[in-house]
Amino acid sequence: MKSFDQLAVIGLREWINLPQLGVIGLRAKIDTGASTSSLHASDIQPFERDGQPWVRFTAHIGTLVQRRHRCEAPLLSVKKIKSSNGQAQSRYVIRTLLTLGAREWPVDFTLTCRKTMRYRLLLGAKALVDGQLLVNPALTYVQDKPTLADPGAQ
Fold first, then answer.
1. Which of 41, 65, 69, 105 has its CA at a distance of 20 to 30 angstroms from the CA of residue 58?
2. Could you give a single Gene Ontology term from the biological process aspect (predicted)?
3. Which residues share a beta bridge with 128?
4. What is the C-alpha separation between 66 and 108, in angstroms, rounded?
5. Which domains are seen in the chain, by residue range?
């Protein structure tokens, strides 16, 4: 049996932070069948800042108690995505830092309405590869819940 020491093990569900967006303590569903990661967002408005494309949106945090958080991020692209039900739609794509356990790395997210989904964030295969993560589907919440990083530590 081979082992891969450089890979961190995660479960099917994990706690994450998106520190650049100010989103802390969000439950994520790990989906190895999805290439791209997605974040539940509403009120999505593209705009320009210093001649560069940006997007403003409301991130929805929590399932039982719904909290809304207004975010802004540089717009990476607009991508055509085929959802699990086979429908294609154009989605705005942003890149932001993701914290999972002790790891932090940039992840591309499509912004979409996930209000009918249990998890507000879906972490796809590209993010798993970039984060060097190995998924054990028999486990959940393997990594410690990330906390807000000390601003003086960076």
1. 105
2. proteolysis
3. none
4. 24
5. 8-135 (2.40.70.10)
User: pLDDT tens digits, the chain, 154 residues: what are they?
Assistant: 666 777 789 999 999 999 999 988 889 999 999 899 999 999 999 999 999 999 999 988 765 556 788 999 999 999 888 766 778 889 999 999 999 988 999 999 999 877 767 788 999 999 999 999 999 999 999 998 877 654 434 3
- Residue 74 is encoded by which pair of tokens? 């540089």
The length of the chain is 154
Phi-psi region of 131 (alpha: psi -120 to 50; beta: other; left: phi over 0): alpha
CB atoms within 10 A of CB 6: 6
pTM: 0.86
Tokens encoding 3 = 């082992």
Query: Residues 79, 88, 118, 71: what is their CA dihedral angle, to the nearest 10 degrees?
Result: 30
Q: How far is CA 104 from CA 20, 60, 117, 141, in A?
A: 11, 21, 25, 17
SS3 151: helix
H-helix segments, 49-141: 125-130
